[in-house]
């Protein structure tokens, strides 16, 4: 017998010959609470199919684990059991397979996404302190039945948690079933209500019906109603068989034809209650959870809320136990109140050579934020908070702000001292407001995390502390409150603020010590971090602080005109709908489109309602006028709320400019995103979008320069694939879409029509995003066969493009990620998902990600080089925006020609490729004029 650490893990994997006898299975101490027996196998499958396909950042499926553990936690919370066990089916055949070799023969193999979850699920259950059993030769039902019977003999009540109807045969006055997922209870009374027969007749009931999922033969045409009716009339299966001749009709014929197999069916559906087991019921007593193992498992599986709750109880326990400060993880923190302390800490920072620092301010807006204090950490657990602007009534005396800044300036501006921060760009900008330029070969733990795991949605410090350190940090809400009652940091009591702020620095340093060694081991990732992302931090800080000048009056005038157009569109909707309705209400729009106007439903929402999403309306707009009007209404309404009304409100009163915030961790591909305001989504090709760009103006005596990469992703496709025809088109400076049409259609270049060029453009860009024949057919409005024929001809002319796509998909499936030219990894958690739609979406992303990611790397390197050139040459110009593949500058009139030449040089020569990089570049009084001048 393999009995694995009974005292520690209580996990059995045993064979039938190794068990204790029935008489040894006793409970030596009775308990008033029910013994809970959990049908783990039943819940495992149900959770897998019922819950979303969750996965952690490494691509490990976690949905079934989450569902089962959540159910176990609920059971424990609801019943507070003292005795409990979770029972799973063991691998291999059981005695039922010997009786009937076709037993469960129709069941498919367990999905790989589920197989991968079993081992970590078992580990979590063990760490929770729950006994786990899996007995060879029998099923989980039989183990549960045996335990239930033996407990009942000891006058113990039993609660079986399951979703399996077969278990109803075990119900009696002492055994109850609960379905934790549906919160339904089965006792002797409710079994009759549910099945129409009492528990003692469930076996006969199941034998008559058979079970298609287990391939148990029953009586054809006999379902629940007939089985219950016969048992009520005849009393038992034996009586039904004995009087089979009296049953009339076709169902009677089926019964008589099945008489030979009914005894076997009854045997198959009967749960054994005499299985020899390797334990006593006393062994089912719950143990204390292994909190360290749970912390590790929750971190790996990324169950952050459970990890946070676990750590919170740990902290509470520590505080209760830690009368001695030496045991407190905050024992090494101090608050700097005196000049002597400040000098002492400056000496420590100087000696450390590398230290973490963080700023505490009054606002998240860097242009408005006022410094309240700073924190530092030089080693794990060794941190300090330096307050100097807490100004609530009764605040302790603090060092003067000017003295603090004057003392710290040499350290923060010393290039030989390395600073570690989390979201360091924010701290750099806040210190710049105070006149200090942070220098040094710095590190940002937010970026370290992002580059290691770009697929993760969260790189905030609280999440990373949980994930990598198992540390539940003090949240801002913990110290400042929530909602309307939240106070600014300068109002937070210093004693509270000090621990919070010092912890920020301490955790940041520990994260760096954890993450950076992992980066160093990966050459490509470390290159991205050292040569692209970290140098970009200071560049973006300057771009944000530079800001963009806005003509607010022009935007307000446009708002008035757009509001007028909006009213016209609203009137049109009333006319087309035949009544007034709220255009912004999906429910009312559904009624008008699909009930009143009888427009066909093309797609439904997850809740089964007709969809009014943008793609659906665009398709309907091809044939119906109202959807077309709705689309225009939505577009204009969004322009007003997001730009023409909003941008003037976001002008900083001190600078007279708007200052967006660029996010380096917002997209898995490495592209930058911007917020407050988002400058990435202003429409490019519409008249209204162009007018908004006209409001982005140059200061007097200056011009706007716009430089936009041309077809950069297609050029990267040519470089990466080295496809002869595609490379030739770019090297010869041909119109690539015209050249594609000529290649695919077998035409001379000068005979390609504008429609043929448009179709070629659709496939050129579509294939970058993994477009299928179906998608191409919809875009070109041709049948699917014609679209597939076009794609086939395309790949005949560009065979290496097809090879790239096939190889990239294969690589993604094998390693779970793809890479850019410089080694940025783009993880694809769903690439091996058992759900076909998720897997196909991941494959499309795999094809595009190296292209889009490489394009992002290129423009970032161009930004770094151009910022360096502008700074070193003291050029009267500044970079003010980055939008997708475009850089925007504000340049003094006398510097325009010089900057145009430099931008073209640096952007096109940023990296050697086998095809030329080209840009559209021009200058003008506003952003739109500059783009127009660039063509």
Biggest sheet layout: 8 strands, mixed
What is the CATH superfamily label of the largest domain? Answer: 5'-nuclease
Distance between the termini: 79 Å
Helix content: 40-55%
CATH class of the largest domain: Alpha Beta
Q: Per CATH, which architecture of the largest domain?
A: 3-Layer(aba) Sandwich
The structure class reads alpha/beta
Report Rg.
35 Å
- Please give the order of strands in the largest beta sheet: 1-2-5-4-3-6-7-8
Number of domain modules: 5
Strand content: 5-15%
Tally of helical runs: 37
Unreliable parts: 1-10, 12-31, 316-327
Oligomer: single chain
Strands, count = 25
Mean pLDDT: 87
- What gross morphology would you assign? globular
- CATH topology tier name of the largest domain: Rossmann fold
Q: Mind explaining what this structure looks like?
A:
By secondary structure, the chain is α/β, with parallel strands linked by helices. It has 5 domains: 1-192 and 275-305, 3-Layer(aba) Sandwich (Rossmann fold); 197-271, 5' to 3' exonuclease, C-terminal subdomain (DNA polymerase, domain 1); 332-521, 2-Layer Sandwich (Nucleotidyltransferase, domain 5), CATH 3.30.420.10; 549-658, Taq DNA Polymerase, Chain T, domain 4; 714-849, DNA polymerase, domain 1. 50% of the residues lie in helices and 12% in strands. It is built from 37 helices and 25 strands. The strands form 6 sheets. It has an 8-stranded mixed sheet with strand order 1-2-5-4-3-6-7-8. It has a 6-stranded mixed sheet with strand order 9-12-11-10-13-14, sandwiched between helices. A 4-stranded antiparallel sheet has the order 23-24-20-25, with helices on both faces. Strand 23 (877-883) and strand 24 form a beta hairpin. Helix 28 (712-721) crosses helix 34 (799-815). The longest helix is centred in the last third of the chain and has 37 residues, at 836-872. It is globular and about 110 Å long.
